[in-house]
TrEMBL record:
Classification lineage: Eukaryota, Metazoa, Chordata, Craniata, Vertebrata
Name the UniProt record assigns to this protein: Chloride channel protein
Listed InterPro entries: CBS_dom, CBS_dom_sf, Cl-channel_core, ClC
Cross-referenced Pfam families: CBS (PF00571), Voltage_CLC (PF00654)
Domain of life: Eukaryota
Protein source organism: Huso huso
Amino acid sequence: MDNPGYRRGSFNSMQSGTSDEDMVEIAGATLDSSGTDDVLPLDRDVSRGHSTFNGEGLNGASKMMDFLEEPIPGVGTYEDFNTIDWVREKSKDRDRHREIANKSKESTWALLQSVSDAFSGWLLMLLIGLMAGSLAGLIDISAHWMTDLKEGVCLSGFWFNHEHCCWTSNETTFIERDKCPQWRSWAELIVGQPDGAFAYIVNYLMYVIWALLFSFLAVSLVRSFAPYACGSGIPEIKTILSGFIIRGYLGKWTLVIKTITLVLAVSSGLSLGKEGPLVHVACCCGNILCHLFTKYSKNEAKRREVLSAAAAAGVSVAFGAPIGGVLFSLEEVSYYFPLKTLWRSFFAALVAAFTLRSINPFGNSRLVLFYVEFHAPWHLLELIPFIMLGIFGGLWGAFFIRTNIAWCRRRKTTKLGRYPVLEVLVVTAITAIIAFPNDYTRISTSELISELFNDCGLLDSSKLCDYINDNTTKTTDDRAAGPNVYTAMWQLALALIFKIFITIITFGMKVPSGLFIPSLAVGAIAGRLLGIGMEQLAYYHHDWVIFKGWCSPGADCITPGLYAMVGAAACLGGVTRMTVSLVVIMFELTGGLEYIVPLMAAAMTSKWVADAIGREGIYDAHIRLNGYPFLEAKEEFTHKTLAMDVMRPRRNDPPLTVLTQDGLKVEDVETLISETTYSGFPVVVSRESQRLVGFVLKRDLVISIENARKRQDGIVSSSDIYFTEHIPPQPPSSPSTLKLRKVMDLSPFTVTDHTAMEIVVDIFRKLGLRQCLVTHNGRLLGIITKKDILKHMAQVVNQDPDSILFN
């Protein structure tokens, strides 16, 4: 669709927001934050700098001006909550490339500019990686410190967390390595004694008070400064990457508030993680940095390529998994992912991981808190418990999605949604009160996962490693569990029940909340419990058939930490329906190639079981709940309907509103625009013939007419508007004529009325269309928008078609 009439720039006084019944709508996602604000500014003086016109002067012999010969601010831009035109944006980029290539042959300076343009993409990826890695390091360090602040403070420096405070102490013992004189609990500071019932109550109260303070600050900041900073952000990013525009969602305020409140929310002890929101943070970085390069700031399709790479960088720093980040962006969030974007995503993820590694937030030269290495191999028969964990993960994922969506729908439709601050405070209080007595829920979820993944060694002091040594030689072979192991198992079982239910009501509150870490924790607890059970079964019954031949007495057969890792992957896969990227992320976490098969078996089993219960992952379910216009590329449309069954107008509806290529006056168009809520109009030869000429957007019409009134003398309400190539001679006394052919799309996508809807749906998905016109023998019959398709797809599966409307 090479149409030189499409231009970009600022936008003047367009009426904001079209109704839910807009004739022209698109479903995609576009994130646009302007250079000075999150909302595209209104250009108050669009005539500034444009004083050259074609023609013989404003009062010359030719009073008709071929408008839009130069770029006009506002034409070709998009309104909020609308969809970009992928075809037009790609066409603009090809024109830009062609112009640069032609100029590069003329001079050395133009050649250097061409090289600079080609290099700008890689420079942008470098900046995104540096910024995302730095922010991730800052979030990790701050969250670790504030989490420990709930339990005490370091006297040698209040900015030290518990672990760093005791690093330099010479008075710590190996058994009690977390105790040192420099670190004081709140009970020691307030009542002067570390132990006893009163000290326990003081520590309990301080834990709850700090948790409530952190969560109150988080929800207050989100509510006051950046409402878009709440939640995970991944459903909205998927929608934005598909072409939809949500202005401000990736803006400066959202980035600042999300970074601050993410630290507060994680530190409050709520059952949420920072990994999902880190993807949102990285995409904010990408969107803001796009404004440094005109190539990306002026083209919404190119910007989305950058955001896909930024999402990969976000997962890279969240899990320390650069390759997994690239695959996550490709598998889970991206709508358009060309090969060039794959390379740049890899580079951005690499730079982000390198930056985080240089910051070293955990002080162990690792990118994540729960990095582990296993040394014992697994046996083929262990695939049975691994598949059992996969089944559990699938059941948990399906259960979580249904219950969480039901709770979020209740929040949206009842009074509960009117009191977000109170909801967050109540959930935080419940979480803190229940979590404190249990050692495994009191610590941060990342530390819990780290302990569950851990392979017990000779020097471990954890209760999970309290095994009975029945010989004089210290080994790490399978041994009988001691009393502390059974105590830990009871605590873990209670923690599992608590995590399952509290995560359901936590995810979706008005604070930044990721789902990766809680899902990993649920699976890790279930896996560790199963692993310990298998280990003790092998120890006491090594002569059973399932153990005979590969597990001899005293050998190190079972690794409970491996079961925890497989369970974590299964539960995360059940919730998100990730497969390839999930396995690679978990593999990069452990560094063990030999465990890929157990992870693959668990991930695939989890996906199959969850898909058998419900096809949607948690992000797709939230997209549908919020009514975002998103066409899922993974779903097949198998119903035998035709374009004529879906198009508007329907049989008893008023005729389609159209413009004719001539015979219209400015006042006619302005009246039509003010009386309708459509966002675009087909242009036909005449109302009698209904032969299609093109399609014009309402936004472009409004901006063009307003600019013409300011820039061209003689444009009045009675001026004629023409969309034709040649204008017939006008009487000398007639007002100036306005030619708007160049704001019209001369090659709109059309299908015939008998085209199968499965073909129409494929066209919309693969080309990212805003709308498609329906014709019969060249005569215009109607129009199909993305919203029409989404409504139709909801109807054929007996869902409420109005449920897809964006609110």
